[in-house]
């Protein structure tokens, strides 16, 4: 996939003489060194190991015939009075047959609008040629020279103007490049035409006055610059603007040579538009060959329904017709839409001998013919069917004959043909003799075709393809069939291949693109041995087919419509035909169906998109979709990846009503298709998934000892924080053994020092607490507890407070009283039904003897609304602490040992589990001490905290740290940000804060809400250059993208890019890491990689080791495993109701199975790895970085592998600009993706295939269900973490109210 890139050496010609200074010499040496290792070292494409290669079926049919012999066309006849050039024919008819009609154009109702005679055509073309050469620019500097390319921009409905422009260019010897009329500046088709105009060097466009008026303009009336177009000069060619040539001026009409005559555009499979150059001699020879093959005679009438700018419409209806003085009646597409019978009526009125049509025109005329009985089609000798090579043409021709045979249509006049932009006409059926038997048809096996071989279908009628021949190849041509890919090796007689042609009547090159030209126009076929069969160059036609009996040519598909799935080839046209055959009348609008393939997970996947009728019901649509799936499966033996229905008239169209396949595919991949119905079937069609991984038995043997340590030569992955060290001040440690004593000590020694400042949304202090005030408020609460609570030492007391200083006072009040505080987030008054049950649950689980709270909250607990969701009669004693009497407790409790419990820490994990963790006094002191050392906290410092104070590190920083270290904490409740986003950042600026702590949800609010307002904040004087560290507190993998955007956005306000860092804690150890440096393991952006950042420096006194969660053996450096911790501030255990000691022992006191079986470790339940980095730590050793990857509880077990939801979610969020947030979970082995849609609802179904693609590509998983919901549906807890289990429960209980649910089949 990637080639290794060799380093660029220095130019070898630098002599190294003694005079060159050593500095320059060093510089040269550094230049010689490769800048980076080659790409291959960073990323190896492991598709070979991943992809399950389907085994070849031994019964696959293989070609058995002999090698094909080139087929020769009949010789090109010699005609005595043949003109030397096409312009000469026009000159001749203009002079000798001036009154003879050349072209009749119709108005929109199908009535003749004007008739152009050969005399008028000649004189007007002459005028135009004279004007182009002599009247644009000056004599000294003419704008056009012979050989320049000129764009022709005329609508299909104005053939006369186009004819004059085309022949005017030929007479002026400039090269016409007919193109479509651009519809808008952004019009997809016209963007690609810009590429064509650029490659052909076009800078002048001819158009009609009417067309010019209709082009999009700028404000000041100039024609807009179309996207991707070169600068254009526009010239209007209506007669009144043309100058009559002077008497002495004559056009130069040389004998046809190999110079380019005109350029015809061609759209490739990739959507690029290229110009096929046709030389003057090719144009003349092609007209001669068509005249001979179709037996045209002078003065015939011809009805042309095709586009006269290109292909058959141009070759027959504009060029060959003038050659033979034929009268052409042009029936434009717009007329056909309004009146589908118009061409049949024209044949009848003009007794036309030849009609040029597509299958669609046959079909429309047949549908409209119900009431017409007076048309007579007996004059037709040739009904040329331009797309007669398509699989559905057979039935169209048969049905049309059925209806019109009674009106004089003869069966032998049908002349299907095969054409290609490169080779022009490849083959055409000659009109049969009256009563002669009609040519036989080939009935082929679809299975055989998909393997590229021809097998006559005998068994199953359904899986057969009936093809009609397209006659013999053109006079004077030579044809071979070669393999479509790889070297042009000749095929066997029973093998399908690409038709290649050698002829003087074909295109000569892709104009301005020599590289692509060589592979298409200069192909020399080779035989089985690889030797060239001659020196004659052939042109690839892009048509796939074979030669049948009697040298008849059969075409079964086009190269650009070829879909190769698991090594088998399917033609897009065949799939369209199958889909059309499934009674689409109720569902599909005007038969508009697009088929293409997209590459997902190392193979092509088939997508079908159809326009849905406005009146189709949901029921009809789904029935049709499921029947199409079955039909394609049974007929073509291939699975569909995606089937989408879009509203009528929304697929991008070509000017003649066809569907632009490439644009449709682009819209599908960009999420701009806006389907109204979609069905994805990845489970049935993705057959190359890797085999699920088998679980290996988990036994610890001697080998794992060796692997762990010696054999791999890896060090065991462990990392250690610095020593806690001896405390300098013995007096301090005595005071600080218990936090309650620390507060009393501070109240005596430094009573007026302000410990806490609480701010409101305006950033104004609403409450402050000095050491003495906090101590006194704690005492009041202690006295009340002792009087009213009826509590025993060691009882649990729930603290139910909004974030603030009351909460802190209540906490120390409990410590003073010898009871165990449990902080609980208060219920949300607007959402009691969802939040109150959690409060009730914690109160019940903790067996709380009493609740301390505020008056407003007490009223809520006893309110009628509360009674609706919980039993309010059974609350324990509720004490409101708002207006307490000034009392001092008789004594303050002092715990007998430091191992006694200080508080319980309850929280709800993201998996929806409620866990309560016991924290002892010893653990609290060491934790506070580690934080003090790590963050360098002392009494003269200020920190700002914008966190929820109910559990984990948030609680420790809010309630404990200041009392221990004596620094001042400025408290900002996160909910204040909802009414004033800038309050946190302006506080940092105003107080010149060095250290601040926040949560990811706070950071996200600021990033999303203030991102666009940095200029405004700057003018208000907001300056963040004071911030040294901004630490995000979380129990999850660091959110790299969010941290980076935050740093980048607020860099303008002076925020140092190194300030933002993360902390990581888990239930068993509330703080493991604080602060960090960032490192990366792979080259950025390597496919299938996730960017991680280090989770912070490990706190003093902490040891971390990485362990295999199954074997409990230590793992090596850079191996992923569970993070285990050993530290003095580990929690003492889970607080459980039934005292499940086994669970507790497993989590809090675990030993390794080998290595160091003595130490007691606590399991964090998180996966991560440790990597030794190049950085040095304070002691001069290399720094061991801890990376947290995710929680073990959260991991999804799918296909025997472990996946982290966050990784899949990151991929999903990248899939489309309108995915705001996403969450994943599993349901009966199916992966469910819930995506929040931030865009308009019409984009909802665009997300389904994109989400499925990205998860398949990046994680090799098939998504089972995609649920599209409104923003804000995915529940998020107070720490900003997704509650995936709650979401899963809501999904299973059908409570999500989704916009759309897609069940992938």
From TrEMBL:
Q: Which residues form the signal peptide?
A: none
**Which cellular component terms (GO) are annotated to the entry?**
neuron projection
The record's listing under InterPro entries reads: AMP-bd_C, AMP-bd_C_sf, AMP-dep_synth/lig_dom, ANL_N_sf, Dip2-like_dom
Say where the protein is mainly found.
Answer: other
AMP-dependent synthetase/ligase domain mapped to chain residues: 96-511, 744-1135
Q: What UniProt keywords are attached to this protein's entry?
A: Cell projection, Neurogenesis
List each copy of the AMP-binding enzyme C-terminal domain by range: 1194-1296
CDD domains named among the record's database cross-references:
Dip2
Record Pfam families: AMP-binding, AMP-dom_DIP2-like
Question: GO biological process: what's one of them?
Answer: nervous system development
Location within or outside the cell? Cell projection, Neuron projection
Classification via PANTHER family: DISCO-INTERACTING PROTEIN 2 DIP2 -RELATED, DISCO-INTERACTING PROTEIN 2 HOMOLOG B-A
Please report which protein family the annotation says this sequence is part of: Belongs to the DIP2 family.
Name of the molecule in the record: Disco-interacting protein 2 homolog Ba
Organism of origin: Oryzias latipes
